[in-house]
Every structure is written in structure tokens, then in C-alpha cells.
Amino acid sequence: DFRRRIIPDAYLFPLMLIGLTNIAFFSHPITIQDAVIGGIFGYMLASVIGFLFDYFMRKKEPDAISPIGMGDIKLIGVGGLWLGVNGLAITLIIACITGAIWARAKKQKYIPFAPFFLLGGFLSFIGLYFLI
User: Fold this and answer.
1) Helix, strand, coil percent content, the chain, rounded in steps of 5
2) Best CA proximity match to 80, nearest among 46, 45, 110, 39
3) DSSP 7-70
4) Does 126 have pLDDT greater than 70?
5) Inter-residue contact 85 to 111 (CB < 8 Å)
6) What local confidence, expressed as pLDDT, does residue 129 receive?
7) pLDDT at 42
8) Hey, CA dihedral for 114, 65, 93, 107, is it positive or negative?
9) Contact between residue 7 and residue 75 where contact means Cβ atoms under 8 Å apart
10) How far apart are CA 18 and CA 13, in angstroms?
11) C-beta of residue 7 within 8 angstroms of C-beta of residue 76
């Protein structure tokens, strides 16, 4: 995501299948219902935010590129599936804070969101599954 600003589906769909298999067959602190609700909530939340960003940016500049892409939206949906609603909330908070710090330090207007989301997801995963 840093170099080409794209998140291939070849990474996202196996992550989704592994997450579903993991939740269905192994014990977790989250239930399968929470995982499915987290996945749907994450996908819908990211879709609405992406649509609003796209709408308001194109209103200002018709040739503007949307800052959130479908890869980011699918990644947030997969993160909700792995972590549930509570883990997804923690992940998004960590990702937004670290992404804002990175953007401020590098003085960039647009940043790749996936690395920061993965960092937040990893920290949330450790917190939810190993510390609780």
C-alpha cells in the first residue's frame, strides 16, 4: 500500500477465509455472531465514510481522487471479522492516531491507511486475545 496505493484482493480474501475458519473451529473471546456483526459493521462504516469523502471531494474538485479505496473498505471489513466490534473500534482508533502522527511528521495530505490499520489490528489482537 505504501508504494502503489493498492491492496490486492489476493491478500484480503484468504485473510477473510482464515478468519472465518479460525472463528468457527477454535475458541476465541469473541463469538461468531460478534465477528460477523463486526465484519458487516466495518464494511458498512468504511463504505459510508468512503462515499462521503468521495462525494465532498468531487464537489470541490471534480477531478479529485478519492482518499479511501475499495481495498481499504474490504480490509476494514476483514478486520471486523477477525476482531469483532470492540476490537475493530480499538483498531480504528489506533490506526487513525498513528496515521495522523505519520501524516503530520511527513507533511503529507494523503497517507496509505492499510499499514496503520494492520498495526492497530495487531495491537488490538494482542490486547483482546492474549491480555484479556
Assistant:
1) 75, 0, 25
2) 39
3) --HHHHHHHHHHHHHHHHHS--SS-HHHHHHHHHHHHHHHHHHHHHHHHHHHHH-TTPPPSS-H
4) yes
5) no
6) 78
7) 93
8) positive
9) yes
10) 9
11) no
Q: Which residue has the cell 493498492?
A: 6
43-85 pLDDT, tens digit per residue, is 999 999 888 888 888 888 877 777 778 889 999 999 999 999 9
What is the reported pLDDT for 61? 82
- Report the C-alpha gap between 126 and 84 in whole angstroms: 14
Please enumerate in sequence order all residues whose Cβ is within 8 A of that of 19, keeping only pairs 6 or more positions apart, or say none.
35, 78, 81, 82
Q: Which amino acid is at 128?
A: L
**Entry field: residues in the chain:** 132
Give yes or no for a contact between 119 and 95, defined as CB atoms under 8 angstroms apart: yes
Cα–Cα distance, 130 to 78 (Å, whole number): 20
Whether residue 2 has pLDDT greater than 70: no
- Please give the mean pLDDT across all residues of the chain: 87
* Cell representation of residue 113: 491507511
pTM over 0.70: yes
C-alpha cell at 12: 484480503
